[in-house]
Amino acid sequence: MADEKFLTYDVVVVGAGNAALCAGISAKENGSKVLILEKGPIQKRGGNSFFTDGAIRTAYRDLEELREVLPGITDEEAARIYMPVYNEEDYYNDLMRVTEGKSDPQLAKQLVSQSMKVIKWLYENGVIFELNENQSFEKDGKTHFWGGLPLKTKNKGVGLVAQLNERVAELGIDVWYESRAIKLEMENHQVTAIQIEQPEGIVTVRTGSVILACGGFEANQTMRSEHLGSQWDAAIVRGSEYNTGDGLKIALEAGAQAYGDWSGCHSIGTDLNAPKVGDFTKPGDIFKKSSFPLGLIFNNEGNRFVDEGADFRNYTYAKYGREVLKQPGHMAYQIFDAQVHPMLRKEYFLEEATFFKADSLEQLADLIKIDKEQFLQTIEAYNQAVQEGDYNPTVKDGKGTKGITPPKSNWALRMDQGPFYAFPVTCGITFTFGGVHVNPTGEVLDKEGAPISGLYAAGEMVGGLFYENYPGGSGLMSGAVFGKFAGASASRYVRGKTKDIVNQ
User: Fold this and answer.
1) With the CA atoms of 21, 126, 288 and 471 taken in that order, what torsion angle do they form, in degrees rounded to the nearest 10?
2) Which secondary-structure segment (H or E) carries 454?
3) Rounded distance, CA 338 to CA 392, Å?
4) 121 backbone φψ class: left, alpha, beta (φ>0; ψ -120 to 50)
5) Which has the closest alpha carbon to 248: 266, 272, 227, 274?
């Protein structure tokens, strides 16, 4: 149990992923005494952030602005890069487009307008960035980036968590492991303390403010069934086993307003044989399968069921996981031929990847559990429907199909060059979209829309940003933006409260 003399803090942060660590660093920078609580042991710290591939979406003017956080890029290297502009308007429009206009405009504008400022703040605090090669293709001697996601953290989420923890240690912030927040104590509608469950018993920490940043309920099977539907029992949990909705429960008990898409989540097609929960010995998002726009997706009845080329994978992969979950056996096959196989993302070539290879489609069908006759008929109909045109995976090339349902709207090549590859996938849930209502500075709002004094939230706990879908890389960016602002707001609140006491 923690020593009694350390049981008073200005700011207590619940969680130890990207959002929580950003909140803790921000609060410390603003002069507060900070405690960070991690539910898991030290070897399993980092929440879902640990399992990401590190891609982080930000608005930017041009390559030169990105080079401010990518100092290793030489002028010669820069001359060989084609970097499309992705400004605040582009980011905002993408967010609104994929959420069908449902994203809370205030929160969306805060995320977008602060994204690059917070990227630079992260860089100043020791986070190392690099170009996201998975978002590029070579063409005419240049590297062409696409999809508005050219930036990632070095060594993926593992590196991000390590770098943020190094900064936490440098700043002298206390971190308690195996410490689960279970209840807020309130007086006159203000946070006064937090109860923490540790292996030795319950500890109560007196505090002026609490920042809840401990994830959604994706690892809680009961809550998944209740809010998402019974079929979600079959989903693989891609990230932390500790994201079981504790923070949401604490916030709602304190009077917070539930907000956002509680029936929606980020889910993707992931390797059929991926671990049932995130394996901390195999981090870095190595099991996902996101090159489907280059190929075709079949259920085991031999039918296609989505438009693989509807948009860049950044804007469809987070919703296609649930489409896989709806299929017989909660699984599907991603099929590719020799034309596109060299262009698949790196995770397809890892030793952990499950795949089948055959010289013909007939042989491939014999290797996998699929209705062979229907599979071959579907491919024949698709091949006949492919239209002529210039194939270009760096843009939405409009090279699609005609006369079949579902169509393939872009990047449609005939599936006719062996060898052929089949990657079996199932649904992997990443994080849930439902959360609590916060204002742009991270204050948690009650059911009347008023701030709950001393209570803040960040990361997956922020409801109202994502509905049914999201633009890839926005989760890490949201965590950093709202974490930074929640930390600063909480520190400001505590300073003001102290002044009020002094002036009484």
Assistant:
1) 80
2) strand 451-457
3) 16
4) alpha
5) 227
- Residue corresponding to tokens 């080079």: 67
pLDDT band of 285, cuts 50, 70, 90: confident
User: Using an 8 Å Cβ cutoff, are 347 and 353 in contact?
Assistant: yes
Q: Which two tokens stand for residue 7?
A: 């049981």
Instruction: Indicate the class that CATH gives domain 266-428.
Output: alpha beta
pTM exceeds 0.90 for this model? yes
Domains 4-264+433-503 and 266-428 share a fold: no
Q: In this structure, are residues 356 and 364 in contact, taking their beta carbons and an 8 Å threshold? A: yes
Question: 430: how many CB neighbours lie within 10 A of its CB?
Answer: 27
- Token pair, residue 401, equals 């199909």
Residue 388 has pLDDT above 50, yes or no: yes
Domain ranges, ordered by start, for the chain = 4-264+433-503, 266-428
State pLDDT tens for residues 82-134: 999 999 999 999 999 999 999 999 999 999 999 999 999 999 999 999 999 98
Q: Is 155 helix (H, G, I), strand (E, B) or coil?
A: coil
3-class DSSP state of 29: helix
Which of 375, 360, 379 has its CA nearest to residue 421?
Answer: 360
DSSP letter at 235?
Answer: -
SS3 78: helix
Cα separation, 398 vs 411, in Å, equals: 7
Report the alpha-carbon angle 357-363-369, nearest 5. Answer: 80
CA dihedral 192, 197, 202, 204 (to 10 degrees): -20
Was domain 4-264+433-503 assigned CATH 3.30.1490.20? no
